[in-house]
Design brief:
CATH architecture of the largest domain: 3-Layer(aba) Sandwich
Number of helices: 14
CATH superfamily of the largest domain: Type I PLP-dependent aspartate aminotransferase-like (Major domain)
Strand content: 5-15%
Structural class: alpha/beta
Largest sheet: 7 strands, mixed
CATH topology of the largest domain: Aspartate Aminotransferase, domain 2
Order of helices and strands: EHHHEHEHEHEHEEHEEHHHHEEEHEEEHE
Radius of gyration: 23 Å
Number of strands: 16
Helix content: 25-40%
Strand order of the largest sheet: 2-9-8-6-5-3-4
CATH class of the largest domain: Alpha Beta
Length: about 475
């Protein structure tokens, strides 16, 4: 078997670049006109301009918290209104993940960080920075979005080991009235996951909350794609979906079996919903929110960086609050973004069905009624490797795709490895480039299949299990 580099032919790259790796919104879908109007109104009114330009309250701009609580209540439809005390404004989902780890974990006492895998790969560095490099554990997905039995079995073993080692109290973090130290952390993207595009079922969400309560775990969910949803049909009659398809895990924790603040519970709950305006308004705003119990939200507001400088994104938070108060952002999401991303999804999926499925490529959860987000996950026919496809695509077709190994949990790939997978993003490139990108990808995979079948004398089949010989 030759080196991977042997599989790549030299190329002068005459074709235009098509980037299906970049998880950014297309610039045509940025609501610059809304931010322009909102910022002008905020900055020309001393009553909003001065608070926006000064240090903010620890929990964030009160107007945004109130407006956001109302919108989330309308979209997620919990049994009761969402009090603004359940929300703290953050610098976005990534920044808040770091804050949650600072307030609610101890790198010694906290046994493990359990990451549903494949996972958002840029989160790994955040866990690493908080001292969990050697404590990251992969939890594989099943058809319902998480292998709950795998998690229960392994988290029990982790807890037993900690007890046998005498690891029974926080080592590095002092006791604080606004925080607590959880024994475990579970990280997930339960709806339209990055990267697998799967949606966790209601049953699995409820089971996950019960596991978290049993083992004193904090579930941190990136709920950043929830508003970007549409019917899965390639010819939907109605593109508008104004409410969620499933309750968030934080909502389940709020109500299940007496709720997060039931008698005997400590009031912090076991779930934190990480929200962000990055996918629906623009990542440059660096503005998001955390929703949880009142004690959870308050704990995040007390992290040292916020106590020092006030809530992050104070000025842009006032702009976003203006767009929510007048209804501009809500209309933009439902009238512009949902239809636009639906069209992009339809185009790329039609091309995948036409060009890639006949080559043996598989997609997860193909029977869903509602889809969304930014990404599509592809499983290649064995023995074709995603890394080779990605390298060959860039070298010969000037096409960039993400190989599956990028999304493996570092140091724990025994039960969750993705060398035969790819992630594609349909948010960044123009619509016509999405179709051309799939055609180029099909050309690469077809050539690799021909080479591999020629060398082995066998016809390849879609991956159904382990043990097949790997050629690349």
């Amino acid at each position: 078997m030759g080196a991977i580099s042997d599989a790549i032919s030299p190329s002068t790259k005459p074709k235009r670049l098509i980037n299906l790796l970049r998880g950014w919104p297309n610039t045509s879908l940025l609501p610059t006109h809304l931010i322009d109007r909102a910022s002008h109104k905020v900055l020309t009114n001393k009553g909003t301009a001065y608070p926006g330009m000064l240090y903010g309250a620890d929990p964030g701009d009160p107007r945004l918290r109130k407006s956001l609580a109302a919108w989330l209540g309308e979209f997620y439809k919990p049994p009761d209104p969402i009090p603004e005390e359940r929300i703290t404004i953050t610098g976005g989902a990534s920044q808040n993940l770091a804050c949650l780890l600072q307030v609610f974990t101890d790198p010694v006492f906290t046994r493990n960080v359990w990451i549903i895998s494949p996972s958002y790969f840029l989160a790994f560095r955040i866990f690493d920075d908080s001292g969990f490099h050697h404590k990251l554990r992969a939890v594989p997905e099943d058809d319902e979005g998480i292998d709950i039995e795998f998690l229960k079995r392994n988290i029990k073993e982790s807890e037993d080991k900690a007890k046998s080692d005498g690891n029974d109290s926080p080592h590095l973090k002092p006791k604080r009235p606004w925080g607590k130290i959880f024994r475990h952390v579970i990280y997930a993207v339960p709806t339209f996951s990055n990267p697998s595009s799967k949606t966790m079922t209601l049953r699995r969400r409820e089971e996950l909350v019960r596991v978290a309560r049993e083992f004193d775990a904090l579930i941190i969910t990136d709920d950043v794609y929830d508003f970007l949803q549409w019917p899965a049909s390639l010819t939907p009659q109605d593109l508008f979906l104004g409410k969620t398809i499933l309750p968030r895990i934080v909502d389940i924790d709020r109500y299940l079996d007496g709720g997060a603040e039931r008698i005997g519970a400590d009031g912090f709950g076991n779930a934190a919903s990480n929200g962000s305006f990055s996918k629906i308004c623009g990542p440059g705003l660096r503005t998001g929110w955390i929703e949880g119990t009142k004690k959870m939200a308050h704990g995040v507001s007390q992290v040292g960086s916020s106590r020092s400088g006030g809530a992050p994104s104070q000025l842009t938070a006032t702009f976003v609050a203006e767009t929510l108060d007048n209804g501009d952002l809500q209309r933009f999401v439902f009238d512009v973004l949902q239809p636009a991303y639906c069209r992009r999804y339809q185009k790329i999926l039609a091309a995948i069905n036409r060009e890639l499925v006949p080559l043996g490529i598989r997609l997860p959860q193909a029977d869903r009624d509602v889809v969304g987000g930014y990404f599509i996950w592809l499983t290649l026919p064995k023995p074709v490797k995603g890394a080779v496809v990605a390298l060959r695509a860039e070298a010969t077709e000037n096409l960039i795709v993400a190989r599956g190994e990028l999304f493996e949990v570092p140091g724990d790939t025994e039960y969750a490895h993705f060398e035969h997978d790819l992630r594609l993003c349909f948010a960044w490139e123009e619509e016509e480039a999405l179709v051309e990108g799939i055609e180029r990808l099909a050309k690469v995979i077809r050539a690799l299949k021909d080479e591999l079948e020629g060398s082995s004398g066998q016809t390849m089949q879609p991956a159904t299990g382990e043990g097949e010989k790997d050629f690349w």
